[in-house]
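Researcher: I'd like a structural prediction for the single chain below. Treat it as a standalone chain; there are no partners to consider.
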Amino acid sequence: MTPDPARAKYNQLRSLRHGPGEPQPGTLSALTISENIVLPPTPGAEASFGRNRLDVDLCVGEDDLRISRVHGVFTYQHGYWWLRNVGRLPIRVNTVLLHTGSEPLPLAVGYTTIFLRGNRQREHLLEVLVSDGEDRASQPRPSQMTVPPKRWRLTPEEHVTLTVMGQRYLAYDPHPMPLTRQQTAAELADLRPREAWTAKRVEHIVSRLRQRLSDAGVAGLRREEVGEPIGLTLTVNLIRELIQSTTLVPMDLEWLELPPDS
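Model: Treating it as a single chain, here is the predicted structure.
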């Protein structure tokens, strides 16, 4: 592997900080349990990660034979860092599964967690930070007010639909799954018998909301971002975003216990 003067690599670095001063916007830092690399946003810049320390820029899962020797590649193109899977097993990016041969996934500005599932259910963590040009994380702020989560504004129709569809998540089911469109429509018809609820109506509500949040910058809500097979991935990602942002909370389940049309 030929050394790249534009690439900084640090062994045993336990932080994603770029160092003193403000990092260049778009700078990528990636951290494993043992190494860290920092790459400026240069068109065509590329860095690989995987099991074979001699063949990659960032070693991860060195003792785990389920991790490919070269498992993934970061590339900077068109103003974004893109992640491509070149290994045998999927890469989990936050809640999105990126499969081998899928279209590269753009990384959002900020912090992203990447997991590689290894032997005996081990998960190897790769932390990634794409800088926005401000070094806010380096300054301790113990007495500052906590920044509240960004809650999404939902219409009453969207709120009740996603509460019903995601009720198993809100009820802390250990293995939650979204209700299907048909199941959601059936429960909504019981809750609001004066309204016409169908699976097609539920689908339109969920699709419009997913599109709106995706346009606002939420990752994992478009088909091209998650790869095939799609399955329930888009719906799961939508529900998780709504719950993690506290747009939906467990108390919303109380609406489902009220008498119809109350």
